[in-house]
Task: structure prediction
Amino acid sequence: MAKQPAAVVGVGQTHHRAKREDVSMAGLCREAIDRALLDANLTLDEIDAIVVGKAPDLFEGVMMPELFLADALGAAGKPLLRVHTAGSVGGSTAIVASSLVQAGVHKRVLTVAFEKQSESNAMWALSVPLPFNMPVHAGAGGYFAPHVRSYIRRSEAPTHVGAIVAAKDRQNALKNPYAHLKNPDTTVESVLASQMLWDPIRYDETCPSSDGACALVIVDEDTAAASPNPAWIHGTVMRSEATTAAERDQVNPQASRDAAAVLWKQAGITNPIEEIDAAEIYVPFSWFEPMWLESLGFAEANGGGWRLTESGATAMDGRLPVNCSGGVLSSNPIGASGMLRFGEAALQVRGAAGEHQVDGARRALGHAYGGGSQFFAMWVVGSEKPSN
Amino acid sequence: MARTLSAPVTVAFDYTRSTGPVLGRFLTGLRDGKVLGGRTSEGRVVVPPPEFDPVTHAAIDEFVEVAPTGTVTSWTWVPEPVKDQPFDRPFAFALVTLDGADAPLLHALDVTAPDQVSTGMRVRVRWADERVGAITDIACFEPVVGLDGVESDDPGPDRARPQPRNEAATERSRPTDVSGVVTPVSLDYLYAASPEESAFYRGLNEGRILGQRCPSCQKVYVPPRSACPSDGTPTAEEVEVSQTGTITTFCIVNVPFLGQKITPPYVSAYVLLDGADIAVLHLILGVEASEVRMGMRVEAVWKPEEEWQYSLENIDHFEPTGEPDADYESYRHHL
Result:
């Protein structure tokens, strides 16, 4: 039996902040869930199953969110699953939720992903020294900075391209009422003038630490008929690879390239840059925009990505608007960041993105990656029901 | 000699929990010497209050003060307490339904033998000496009935008296309700290196850098692997690699953070040792950070032999050899 059609009919997110001390984790999740249900015109009682995702356990010291959140999520008497794929978890959680509908197992699935970074210290959690090893790890920035350097060398990119991305995303965030960072004065020059943290990554080229959550309501074709603007799921894909391996390409990982190829095929897309109207790509450090543009096939490897960014093509009014929401660079509740990409893509094709709407967006990409660039989750959503 | 090396690790952090309005109200009550329940849509009073109603899913917003006395509805005996439990000698955990509540609260009960506890027995809250707005403000429950079987409010000479409410403290202004609690978490575990890694660390204790060649793909892994990440085959053939290599790529760490072992700024670099097919991450010294380059040739600088252990830290750092930089083509497939 072929996959059943599935659509996003509800998107909800919190106001993302450095510290949401006004709410518990349960309260944070419910803030997103209640908005998603309102958007979907459904109640918790009408939901068949719930899929939850969050960042790695050490990040917030919660090992079994499905256990302690079950009642707050309205999961009593229903299946409740937890998904676990590092930084890509928000994306993979949404994909697991959608697969329950596509498989015909459930008709109305609620999915939520969250993180309260303020309750812990992700930098510490990512840098716990292990016996016998050299304690040179320095958080996510320390991990990714050498690979950004590799990209710059391989692609012979001018060094200001990262700043273009950061300035663009921060300006886009001003149009998103939920975004964490609201810095109207951010320009390419101000980014370049900010402190070099993990050389070659500057302070303003890094994502913030945010508290936040995102929730989606994913339903079958019959339920979607009641929605004025469902975002139909045209393709979903997840791929993984080893953290370290001899000669592993950390700039353009095999798993990322493979995932993109499968995704475009599923969605019937042959020329992504022409056929995708808006992309929400997981860019926690500015240089990952050109890196992923190449890996996803929007541009030629080893240089096409930065040329696209530098040309302005990824701006809100460009050929391929990327991260109109402000992206991970403007809001980063790690556990939720992937789902925010997926949800923002859905908002675009539903015409519901408000001030950061791309006019007439019909097909959009949601993308997340995690671990040491080793977990990938992506989907394409469209305003029309897929024909395939 | 054990086949594998292991070492203790402690991962500890004080997580700062936001309570949200409902649990915050409950903890504020405890701080003020009151036990608050939440009333659900079905009219039940639940302690501690659930954040959301189990039927309507709405946030709980009606709070009811219940009595500090109640009835044991079930219990379990703890013959051997572990660290950080409420008592360091045998005691009971009990489900106590407080008078005025419809659902039980789990807490410790101060009894010293299992024959002193029974379902249906009457107990009361023993407050902690100092209340801060945490569940431990209830130090424990204690029996209301004395050993003579007579119900008595006299706790007896050898029992801690319940802390009377400190009226002065209650009168004092309470500027803010409790909105957070600190939850210290500490995990102690034994980190075990694989047999292959153990051979690598033992080599370091002899001043050698040992890798192993994968029999399938012929790549030399440093450290060696129980399973080659590319094909799953255990690496087997031991290969001693050079102490000299090439910086493939690197990061200059300028940012200080909690738990950091090396004072920034420092250069963290991938060093591809001659004879290896995968780079190791290490520290670069002996050169200004701004002078470090991709392709720079570096060599291991060891700590004094008397400081050696089974650790990559036996190599204090890598520093430039002064040779010409490696050709980009020689390492580009390692980026």
Chain A has one domain: 6-121+208-382.
